[in-house]
Batch of 2 targets.
Target 1
Amino acid sequence: MTNILIIDDEENLRKLLARVIELEGYAVFQASSCKEGFKTLHKEHIHVVISDVKLPDGNGVDLTLKIKQEFPGIEIIVLTAYGTIEDGVRAIKNGAFDYLTKGEHQERIIPLLSKASEKSVLQQKVFALESRLQKKFGFDNILGDSRRVKECVILAKKVAVTDTNVLLLGETGTGKEVFAQAIHHESARRTKSFVALNCSAFPKDLLESELFGHAEGAYTGATRSKKGYVDEAHEGTLFLDEIGEMNIDLQAKLLRVLETGEYYRVGESKPHKVDVRIIAATNRNLEKESDLGNFRRDLFYRLSVFTISLPSLRDRKEDIAILANFFINQFSLKTNKKDLRINPDFHKSLYQHPWNGNIRELKNVIERSVILADQELSASLLPGDFNLEDDSSVTDLAAVEKRHIRKILIHTGGNKTQAAKLLGIGLTTLYQKIKDYEL
């Protein structure tokens, strides 16, 4: 039911108006002052306020602005016994739905109330949805009490409200896409699309088509024209994961988007305009890649205007328990195992593990353990080689990566597609690493 609040110090008129509105099926609340009205607003879920201009402790026109600032989803109809053009204009500027002179309101109030309530109900549904999205994708979704993570969140919040491009650095599985989503949902672009593209998931020619789209007949199999990810992200945010894997020729075309806002679809000679914010992510050292000629230095400078380096899980071990408990609750609900006990040796083993796969590896390990558990989570449920070797003593990064990839391949029974997904890298990248490491 739609709830209406009438704020008027003339009791007889207020009660009469309330009775008329109640007969139309609305729930009506009454207040005789600004102070009493705000008490009701904080207590009840109000959709529309009908307020007199002259009140004992304030002015209805000024009250409109205060209500809209605190309750933007509420619509306000202002009533006055002596209407002036100046008050009417100011009321509308302050956010009033409409401004009526008492006497004419008797015929207009119900139709107007219907329109105002429809708008308010829709707006409040939108605000509720945005709030749920904010909890799911915003900064509240980034878990951790460690100093390193808090510093990253502070930086991300500062850049989120700007339109600056962002470069997220960090190992695979450190949560770069989670940060990208949070930045988008805290930005002015949050009502538009967040589009994510993994640059390592496609070969060069196909990646260009996915990124920029193509014309009909642009290549064999292109039976119709297609929009690209850039166009899908128009006025929103494009997240380019593993951008270090992008071919250098395609990098030049991306640079054009950043410099001019223009791009060409494959097979077309006409440029398209786009307004998009780029958030890029990589686990590579792009500056080093630039020195080697693998990454355009001008593109690197464009992308790295604001850089955030995310810590590995082994560098924020105090967050392991927080993250583990979150995933335990998540997967316990999914598997209907809500009363699982947690043996202290389980958390101890988690803490001692090097987590070369970072948060993604932790999530996968917890999911597997919850599935295997009957009544208790214990260290015995962890992967067989979980504590057999102390990877934290290994200082050769290549050796660490080789050992971790071997573990994941064993875990997936040699399924390379699943292994690539768990590692958070493209299938072609995995095949290359298997070849390089002779796995």
Target 2
Amino acid sequence: MKLIRDASEIIAKTLGEQAVGQDEAVRLASWCVAVPAGDGGVLLLNNFTKELILIDDGDGLSGLHDLKETDSELFCYLSRHWFTVPVALDDKNLVDEVRSVVSCMNKPEGIVGYTILTTTDCNARCFYCYEQGLERVNMSRQTALDTAEFIKKTAGKKIKLHWFGGEPLFNSSVIDIITDELKKSGIEYHSTMTSNGYLVTDSVVKRAVESWNLKGVQITLDGTEEIYNRRKAYINPKGSAFQRVLDNIEKLLQAGISVSVRMNLDMDNADDLHKLCDLLADRFSSYEKFGAYAHYIFDGKTADSLYYTLDETYIELEKLRSYLREKGLARRGKLGNTIKTSHCMADKDSSVVISETGKLYKCQHITPTTESFGTIYTGVENPDIIENWRKRPEDGEICENCPLYADCVRLSSCPDDFAFCPQVIYDEKLEKLKSTMLYTYEEYLKTEHS
């Protein structure tokens, strides 16, 4: 047996070593995932503790009672490290108990994540935009100054700012104001941005590096030139918007800023996105900080409304994701460091969304009907809204023995999540985890042989 990756320190401390009686019947825990690793070896992940080991083929995966006689050392290791558990153990309940403990232990002081809408206006008119119906308003200079003051009063250590919109660069001056004020106060920060990339200029790049401490930008490309230009429907474009955005992506990369291209897929552009992969690979694959990923189009209502086309959509989505990996554009994932305790910013006390008028929200997907829970001037006015974002839907039967349960936190109110777990999504997430296990092993071998 080889230890490829240690268990999470906080999980290991919380659980301690498992003591199993000499004659107690045991089984492989539901949170274990196995992947053949070549040369007769099997990678075995404890997706609860995050420990990854390499064992001989068959060891620990079947015939545990025989293993107890043939390799008692491995048998005891698997028991002590929670790869095997007593037959009667309620796996899911134990995960829930540890999740609760870790959640209390991991709470940072103050707010460390601020998503800031510089504007609800935009220079594009995407047909699928969930913000349709919102009034187009720019954050004012005074609101930007007040936002900076709010951050100073509430910030924890090493905060992250995420610039959002609308198109955040449509009102980039407020980014200057906020970051200048934070810099004067000695607050340590870095930032990221969600942008269409059209308004990136040499001046923007210079300010992004020198003042905004911008580390990464997510830019959406929904197809090659003709399809992209039609779908984005920019107002008063000058020349080809597509070519302009590609040039701007290169400007960001040359400045050392990471760029992640999101490909929004539906049944109308699926084939064209493969052509886009070819184009992006030819132009950007040499840049270490470039990557791309695919997702189905968020329709602004509920993900459940996509159910009737979900299987068909996911077949195309997996084809595209496979092609992204083949072209070297997909960033390889890393195993998580600990159990997941929150879904996203919406159920974290350490994150907040600030609108262009200074209202406070828990989710950045603001629609005309979304309620704020307060303002940067008054603080929390409606705690019930915050509590509502913490509500979880009831678990289904599939949750009882799911190896992904430790990484799964769902929200009842999330507009981009499912109230159930469709098989296609379960299968996709499990395959992604297995791929990540293999990647972790590859990195281990590189280190071992260096």
